[in-house]
Design a protein that fits this description.
Flagellar basal body rod protein FlgB, flagellum, cell projection, Flag_bb_rod_N, cilium, flat
Amino acid sequence: MDGNGLMKMVHDAARHAAARQAQIARNVANADTPGYRAQGIGSFADTLREPVTPLRRTRPGHLPPTDGGIGATRATPRASAASPNGNTVSLETEMMHATAAKAEHDTALSIYSSARQILGATLGRR
């Protein structure tokens, strides 16, 4: 993988972790909403394993423009027990998912920082 490919993948991984954090925040915000179903976004590794079918534009305006990045985020319902009001949000579960998303984001930032330092050293900058 070349440097540009690495940087793009790290960017996509950080963006994916941010999307996971945003979904967790939505779940926590709706913890008391009757009937709300907790949703989750899979890990970045799981997203990379999913086959990507390229979309084909058949006429102008047919499809909205996309950035074509890896790690498209789709929220899916989480299987969990519902409370008496039909809500499936568990704050303990959301905090565990938040910790995992933060770890993914921190990893992406660490890889980005290391790659930047290596590139700088290669160019003779410190």
